[in-house]
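Look at one such:
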Amino acid sequence: MTLTTQGVVLNDLSGWPGWVVEVDIYWPTWSAREIRDIAPPGTRSNARRPRDDAELVTRIRGAAEACREAPRSSIWLLSLAFPTPHKKRKNGAQLRAETIATMYDYACRLGLSPRRAISEVYALPVVDEGERTEYSRTLERWIEQARKTVNPETGRPYLPAYDAELHAPRQWPIGRGHRLEPRRARPALPEPVREGPYAGRTLTLRVTRTSPPEEAAREAEERGERLIGPDLIVEGRWSDGRDLPPLPPLRTVSPGEMFHRVQALVTELEGRYPGAKVTAKGSGQAMGNPAPAE
């Protein structure tokens, strides 16, 4: 996936070797507009094209629009590298099991609910009723099939039997209430026993991003682009309501580097304030989503 001045370029689509798909993005709302597919050399003029597959087009739009939520948007990009589980085909059960197992495992590593993520990507219904969530029979059948179908390369099922200790979704240390996060999940990192003068106190960090330089932002807007600022601003507040003294900004941090840089700061502050629990919440802008146009 590549971001351009017009939108997003996607390639390596499953079943479409050599094809490139361009998606124009309307930046103020980050919504997908026109989709163009570019054929590899030697393709017949009347050949079937990616745009002819309505289900694939839906996922292409979803992948392009979800790019503002990097890195969690990569669950959509991953789906484009595998055949859709909706269609019947030769070796369909094995291909579907591989797709669902890969998506399930990757969703867990992204701190997402695998059932919610797979349902969203493949347009399956989800019904939240109080504390309960109902998923479609299609999804449950796919997951069951992935747990029973044996991978010929390993001799084991594509998706192992569920083990809460290994497979239950975990909350990321840095989160912002993503709609595909599990409704109830344990932290990704085990809670340590905290001792020291700050034990029992919590320091919450709020992470935002600086605005881009005005001239560069104006020039980008004229080209139909949206810029994000280069640096992260971190503000802290204690659980008793007191603000932390100002912290220096984290300079030149890309969305992909944000987690590691902020987690390093969390570790540093836990050492500076022995016994304190330090958490961080990143805004959508900090994670790479351009601020709305004024």
